[in-house]
């Protein structure tokens, strides 16, 4: 599996060409910060369609802007890059992945801030194996584990951990690391539909699950809707290699697969116009996923597992206790039992909560205050 991961990472970097690193000199007298994260958005800052692909693209631009305002020059390197870490005495190392570890080792005296975007990697790997084994049993397939994270001590090396997630995410970390963690709420993509508050047909549900389908919990959802052909499932997202073949015996006319579509596309709008409920049976996330947040922002009621539940989920959605067929059935029965007025109330609460708490301005302010606090506490 490590060989497969190295091949995938190499392919990713080949596809990026010369977009593996980006340097920002704000003032020659400023100290330097090294960011190990995504780098390509800096080469497409004026391309709104490109930046809208994922909220992390707008967020990394905010990061660089904040570090500049706080008196840093910035060197961004893609976390998968194999390039040499620059021979610059960095004052702070920020980010994730192997290049975070490499830069920390090369700059032992730097402030080290790990940026957690998922659950602690050992917990994550355990869930990947567990859910893949279960999927293979249920669908008589033999799919490999996907998105396993190589053993590393990035979180252990860090002085601080800035974590996208919720309280569940914190509990996936070893107990001795939890005191380092501060949560931050991610942003959502800028596009928002003018949604109708009125309840729609309760028989239509949307599932958004791209790369890492099995980890997103598609197995129990597909199984449930295969058995309930009076209900419709609309699946948005890229289908992983081998998954379509595995689930094909379970596909019927009530399960519609659209593939990947941008959040602002006509296809996504058409699906959202049909559905009041999003179902996400994910086994591990870094808190509420972008799919959940963007759907909620557009008035879709979330049905989610603990790892991807926003705070106060009971007010505007439903919390499944696990990713299982039994929990999916309970959740759908809950949705079908809601009256028109309750649905309309939860749709509005869902949209308002996300718009107020998961926007780029909120993220930018929180990130600025967090980094400034670290700088002040270290006397820099």
How would you describe this structure to a colleague?
This protein has 380 residues and is an alpha/beta fold. The protein folds into two domains: 200 residues, Rossmann fold (3-Layer(aba) Sandwich), CATH 3.40.50; 154 residues, Rossmann fold (3-Layer(aba) Sandwich). It contains 15 helices and 13 strands. Strands 1-3-2-4-5-6-7 form a seven-stranded mixed β-sheet, sandwiched between helices.
What does this entry show, briefly?
The chain has about 375 residues and is an alpha/beta fold. About 40% of the residues lie in helices and about 15% in strands. The protein has two domains: about 1-125 and about 130-185 and about 360-375, 3-Layer(aba) Sandwich (Rossmann fold); about 205-355, Rossmann fold (3-Layer(aba) Sandwich).
Keywords for this entry:
15 helices; 380 residues; 13 strands; globular; single chain; Rossmann fold; alpha/beta; seven-stranded mixed sheet; six-stranded parallel sheet
Whole-number average pLDDT? 91
Shape: globular
Question: Reading side by side through the largest sheet, how are the strands ordered?
Answer: 1-3-2-4-5-6-7
CATH C-level class of the largest domain is Alpha Beta
Give me the secondary-structure category.
Answer: alpha/beta
Number of helices: 15
* Rg computed from alpha carbons, rounded to a whole number of angstroms: 21 Å
User: Helix coverage percent of residues?
Assistant: 40-55%
The second-level CATH architecture of the largest domain is 3-Layer(aba) Sandwich
Would you tell me which CATH topology of the largest domain applies?
Rossmann fold
Approximate strand percentage: 15-25%
